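B., you asked whether I could sanity-check this one before it goes into the benchmark set. Here's the sequence:
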Amino acid sequence: MDASRHWLVDEDPALPDVIEPLEREASRETLPLGLSIEQADLRTLLGYQEAWARLAANALDPNIFLDPAFALPLIQHIAPVERPHFVLVWQESGSTSFGRLVGLLPLARRLVPGDRVARGFAHEQICLGQPLLDRDLADAAWESLRDWLAAGNTRLALRLRRVPRDGIFYQRYVAPTLGTAAHVLGEHRRACLHARDGTTSPGVASFRSAKRRKESRRQRRRLADHGIRTYRSAASPAEIKHATERFLALEFNSWKGVHGNALLEDAGLATFTRSMTRLMAEDGKCRIDSLELDGRPVAMGIVITAHGRAHFWKTAFDERFAALSPGVQLALELTEVQLADPSVTTTDSCAAPDHPMIDRLWPDRMALVDVMIDLHPDEPASFRTVYAIERTAIAARARAKALWHALRALRRGRKGAGTRSERSG
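And here's what the prediction gave me:
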């Protein structure tokens, strides 16, 4: 790796003033087995790029959202209060002057005084939550992280969200202690696409009824009536830079822009996206596909890939062609591209559960769990108590969210009724 690589898209002159102090002094603590542990903020991490990239490439259970090319731009460009701190496990002998990084866990900062739960960083742009553990020293690194979190008895449990249930991390470190030293707080399933033999998939074809296939062909023909229909993939850094700007503009002019959810609505997230896609492209890990009419995109998708696992991270389409389902047409084309790539074993949709579009196209599912892990197995009563408190809090938030959505729907209904009354008058 080029040690001089410029990871961040811009320098933040205010950076030294906005990083909050850490809960412990940012110095290494010596552990058994020749390991040490360190708590680091953004400024410190910038000096560990090479070691971090090596860990991401050699992780027991890879997590592309903790690749430095993704995570560093994200934590630079989100609000300071949202920035996590990182717990790092080092082996003192290694290929860098810092040693060999063998464990990395991002933790959310404590927002509630007295909170006894350590919480893994869970940002809306991150779709997976397992930590990075070096495959050769995973057991020692995980034990070190747990012991460090438990030290001082200020934390009773660790909560991690969006952990793949079929992943190595969950199967090795969570599943064996379920019901005693670990509990599942929640689980959801989202669409994914597993590799099949050949470039077409009978599973995908059979998942779409003859009626849906006929409708897709009709929409494809009708879309072609508006111009020359092409499907393109951008992959080089120069292509990705141009495609990213087109994607941001397309998304901003879609329903996401109307509802204030587009990346361009947040200057920090827009800059993060530009930086992340560029850095990923430099490593050959990013592709932006577009369905175009006369060279103008009507639907686009961002795919990031590493270690044989692809992630359909973002998609957007032109609302003017909504009746012709350009987003579906893009997804169908992208499906064929993914299935034809022998290096990809699974493509994660990164979509919400029960997504109305991708769930009908991709038949496979991946289970993601929200887990709570006991940091003091010798004190099971304390863990049961904090687990019960966490479940109560989750239920309360769910009720509050449901009430908010109900009130919002009621207000919209009243507004619509008033408009109809005015029109009838």
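One thing to flag: Confidence is low (pLDDT under 50) at residues 1-26, 199-203, 418-425. Otherwise nothing jumped out at me.
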